[in-house]
Amino acid sequence: MPTALDELLQAVCTVDRDGQEAVLAQLADQLLAAADILEWARNHAHWNRLPTEVWERLRDATTAVTQVAQTVAEAAPAFSVRQPTSPTTTALPSPPPTPTTSAAPARR
User: Fold this and answer.
1) What totals of helices (H) and strands (E) does the chain contain, helices first?
2) Does 102 have pLDDT greater than 50?
3) pTM score > 0.85 for this model?
């Protein structure tokens, strides 16, 4: 699997289902590496006495990227699951009825 994000984007459009899982797994790894870089930046922001807001924003970004990486890693295996050969129709839940207002004509 390619490691550059732009190459991963190209690969995801051209690979089979197992390849899609591999692309997503690679993306999760890349996101974890990005989280490591953000943590490095956060530490340096603290050591360089940058404004607290910078440190806090980098902390929040690190947390968010880590969560996204975990979600992608957990979702990736679903892309290699083999679907049944004959499609089955699964009924989707019906949307709730839209309220209609049938106001009676006003009496005079």
Assistant:
1) 3, 0
2) no
3) no
